[in-house]
Design a protein that fits this description.
The chain is α+β, with helices and mostly antiparallel strands. It contains twelve helices and nine strands. Pfam families: APH.
């Protein structure tokens, strides 16, 4: 391919007199591709291929510097070519948190303790006016992925006027909760596939879409992860430990943990609706069917939260209608 040849030519200039081999390292849900560069002495680097007509490397470079300054372990940038969309980066290894957690779930608490600590560092460095605002417009655009892609494309359902009104009313309540939260730097995809086993732990990847927004967003990405799930008792324990560390660092979390947990759950509802839409879009538009397998886990998180709050009950009933579930009579608290 011409682009792969251009990448190899660029690398040859960055690594003069250093023979190297190139192998795929990973791909993500965007147009970016990553390759592992192995030098003759065994040292490895990562090269990002981000076609400039689809991706802009400048946000990546800006956020990498911000997070590195905060003490978060992100890749070092050794060379850049914004015109071609190439970055040469340090290699944070090839073991994601997800791989490690699936192989050794007994080590989860230690790994998540380190993930919490990195998140607190990142948030403690927050200041307004540096990153794009995670504002009403962006949050709403994300929510709209649910009716556009999950409902219309995946379920093949056209919403009635009454159903659309129910969904819009739920969106308004969700947005009101989200936008009332204190704001910090938000990675926006802080989960097990973007955290690497490295020294120090974790190595943090895929942060180029970072914004300034609700403080619970990254935490709910971490513990209501689309790719791996935990018992709620364990999730509560890890979330409380984060909340305690955040309070110690004087981050603007709610003084009462129940209030923080409610914010966290409502933020999760926004993210889960978005993720269901994104996973449907990845399948139907981009041909990436592997994400469909994770939809049930995301839907389970969504239904659990909606079943817990009276203001979200209409959304739960709408989900029942859309999925033709038999609604069970029960108690609502």
């Amino acid at each position: 391919m011409p682009r792969t040849q251009a990448l190899q030519d660029w690398l040859a200039k960055q690594l003069p007199e250093q023979p190297f081999t190139l192998a795929p390292a990973s791909a993500d849900a965007s147009f970016r591709r990553y390759f592992r560069v192995t030098l003759a002495d065994g040292v490895t680097r990562i090269v990002m291929d981000a076609p400039p007509e689809h991706e802009d490397c400048r946000p990546y470079l800006k956020v990498a510097q911000l997070f590195a300054d905060a003490g978060v372990h992100v890749p070092t940038v050794y060379a850049e070519d914004l015109a071609q969309g190439f970055l040469l980066l340090s290699d944070l290894g090839n073991t994601t948190y997800l791989t490690a957690l699936e192989a050794h779930p007994e080590g989860a608490s230690a790994l998540y303790r380190e993930a919490n600590a990195a998140l607190v560092k990142m948030q403690a460095a927050s200041r307004p006016g540096v990153l794009p605002e995670y504002d009403r417009v962006l949050l709403t655009r994300e929510l709209q992925l649910f009716p556009d892609w999950y409902v219309a494309k995946h379920l093949g359902v056209t919403l009635s006027e009454a159903q659309r009104q129910t969904l819009d009313a739920a969106f308004e309540k969700i947005l009101a909760s989200n936008l009332a939260q204190p704001q910090v730097f938000v990675h926006r995809d802080y989960h097990s596939r973007n955290l690497m086993i490295s020294a120090p732990n974790p190595g943090v990847l895929d942060f180029q879409d970072a914004v300034y927004g609700p403080i619970s967003y990254d935490l709910v990405s971490l513990y209501r992860d689309a790719y791996i799930g935990w018992e709620e008792e364990q999730e509560l324990d890890w979330t409380i430990r984060y909340w305690e560390a955040a309070r110690k660092e004087k981050l603007p979390v709610a003084a009462d943990f129940y209030d923080f947990w409610r914010d966290y759950e409502w933020m999760g509802v926004q993210r889960q609706l978005k993720v269901l839409g994104i996973f449907a879009r990845l399948n139907y538009r981009d041909g990436k069917a592997q994400y469909l397998a994770d939809m049930p886990r995301v839907m389970a998180y969504l239904r659990r939260a909606c079943g817990r709050y009276i203001d979200l009950k209409p959304l739960l009933l709408l989900l029942d209608e859309l999925e033709n579930r038999q609604v069970q009579t029960g108690y609502t608290f």
